[in-house]
Amino acid sequence: MTKEMVIAVIAAGAALLGSLLTGGFALLTQRLIRKAAEQKTQQEIQDRDRTRFHEARREVYADFLAAVSDAAGTLSHGAMERQRAAGHPADESAPQLRPLVGQFGPDAPMRMTRQQAIVSMLSGSPKVREASGALVTSVLGFLFVEPSSDHAEWNRALMATFHQQREAYYRFVEAANEELTGLI
Question: Where are the domains of the chain?
């Protein structure tokens, strides 16, 4: 083998080795880029699903609060009507609730309890579940405001129920906000 042939063989081998290395690096880079793109796509899908679930939960909480408002209005008006039907004046200074959705109606408490069941299923927080149950219980308290000839006593019972319902409402809103903002 002549010197020129050895140089040609070394050059050809170097060119072949260079091509193999370049091709190998190109293949490796392509695989890494594809893997990174797949991971990014998976992350975007997970983020989108999380956002969708978060928005669905927020909507369920808003629907629950609207149903609570309607049930509180229906039941508080019912307490006032029971007082009037018993021949005793109802206190007109009591808060006059307005319906948030539709109209007050006899099915408002049922809608409220249905919405509370959905809140319980979707909530990731025991604090939200407990607060929603306490809120429903406080609203149902209007059923137990009995007519009374002692107007002051009846008014105290009605106002205490309003106060309990308001406190339970704020506890639920606080717990739901903590959950939705990721604090719990």
Answer: 52-180
